[in-house]
Design a protein that fits this description.
InterPro entries: LRR_dom_sf, LRR_extensin-like_regulator. With 422 residues, the protein is of the alpha/beta class. The protein contains 6 helices and 24 strands. Helix content is 11%, strand content 19%.
Length: 422
């Protein structure tokens, strides 16, 4: 894997390539009588000489020009810069030395984010760029399928085709990309199921939100090594698998919001010691909050609004020292302790539209009574009181400072700022 760096033309051999633009003559007599033509008639074009910094750039030149010819809309006139031999100065194209040859110069990265380009397919383009390491194309109008040949790219480690018009089933071809660590296919029209092997890929970030995937969360969900996992705005059903425990060493931000998830929260969530953000709002989750959530010492954002949760909000959760947002609105909680009450008054806890007596902005008594008539059961109820860590004894939780989180920005129609990326 290689990083973008400065480019020096010293000690680089100039690869010379001539491309001939010859006029087509269909009349032999015209060619024979050319010397007698009026001076207003131009002679044949002189061949255009293109001098490339490196043979690797010369090889990708016709691929880029071929892709340029497939673009059907370019409202920002991006492709006007895709002219001549200086590929490294084409808008959206970036060059550096490849890992296999420090003295060479090659096309390493493409960033089309926000270009609004339209093309029927990317096949024959990115899969034909042998040294490509990063391809970002957020907010365009590309469609079609992903070529199986993309698995032949040895250096490709970031693929972002989010906010485009791709459709069909999950693009299985991406699973064969050997170095892939960042996959973003959000805001497209993919349907069907997500293959379970996705969650065993060596990825750092997996953004699948805002598609039309419909399935239960796979049992091997916890096998994923990702830091950032976004599955929001799909049609995932069923409970959150207890196997999520296995991701405790890496999982930092999780977005499950706006799906069809059911069942009770697994107490294993309390073992996700790296967790900073967890959103599972607008589902059908039920049961009490497990006290194990009080072990999430790094948690800053926790959103379970618009579910079917009930009971008392655990004091150990409200005592978490780094919380800046605890959203439990539109549920059926019935009791707050002193720590949670203090958090509600500070504005960190949103507990509107619940069933807490003497607190303003709650559901009607009739609505709360109707909910209580329908018994809901969670397996292993004793686990909800289990706290698998030593929680702080302070009765005055520290309110953390707000910050922008990578996972939440995945729900916006813009490029994701990934940590460590220039």
């Amino acid at each position: 894997m290689y990083q973008m760096g400065s480019i020096s033309s010293n000690n680089r051999s100039i690869f010379h390539i001539s491309i001939l633009f010859l006029p087509c003559f269909t009349c032999l007599a015209f060619c024979q009588d050319f010397q007698g033509l009026s001076p207003l008639i131009s002679p044949p074009l002189i061949p255009e000489i293109l001098n490339f910094l490196d043979q690797r750039l010369a090889l990708v030149y016709p691929i880029i020009q071929g892709f340029k010819n497939t673009i059907t809309s370019d409202p920002l006139n991006i492709t006007q810069t895709w002219v001549g031999a200086d590929i490294c100065n084409y808008k959206g194209f970036y060059c550096t030395s490849p890992p296999d040859n420090d003295s060479a110069i090659t096309l390493a990265s493409i960033d089309f984010n926000g270009f609004q380009l339209s093309a029927p397919t990317l096949d024959g383009f990115i899969d034909q760029l042998p040294d490509l390491a990063l391809f970002h194309a957020n907010s365009n109008k590309f469609s079609g399928t992903i070529s199986p040949k993309i698995t032949k790219l040895p250096f490709l480690y970031e693929l972002d085709i989010s906010n485009n018009n791709f459709f069909g089933s999950f693009p299985m071809e991406v699973l064969g990309i050997p170095a892939l660590s960042f996959l973003d296919i959000r805001f497209n029209f993919f349907t069907g199921t997500v293959p379970p092997q996705v969650f065993t890929q060596r990825l750092d970030a997996l953004f699948l939100n805002n598609n039309n995937f419909m399935q239960g969360l796979p049992e091997n969900l916890g096998s994923t090594p990702v830091l950032y996992l976004t599955l929001a705005y799909n049609k995932f059903i069923g409970p959150i698998p207890r196997s999520i425990l296995k991701a405790s060493a890496t999982l930092t931000e999780v977005l499950f919001s706006h799906n069809l998830l059911t069942g009770c929260l697994p107490y294993e969530l309390g073992f996700l010691r790296k967790l900073v953000l967890f959103y599972a709002s607008n589902n059908f989750l039920t049961g009490p909050l497990p006290c194990s959530l009080g072990c999430l010492a790094k948690l800053e954002q926790f959103n379970l609004a618009s579910n079917l949760l009930y009971g008392q909000v655990p004091e150990v959760v409200c005592a978490l020292g780094k919380l800046v947002n605890l959203s439990l609105s539109s549920n059926y909680f019935t009791k707050l302790g002193p720590k949670c009450t203090k958090l509600e008054r500070s504005g960190v806890l949103d507990i509107r539209k619940n069933c807490i007596p003497d607190l303003p902005g709650q559901r009607s008594a009739r609505e709360c009574a109707a909910f209580s008539l329908h018994r809901r059961y969670c397996s292993n109820p004793a686990s909800f009181n289990f706290i698998p860590c030593q929680v702080p004894s302070s009765s005055h939780p520290r309110i953390g400072t707000k910050r922008n989180l990578v996972g939440y920005s995945a729900l916006l129609r813009q490029a994701v700022e990934f940590p460590g990326r220039n």
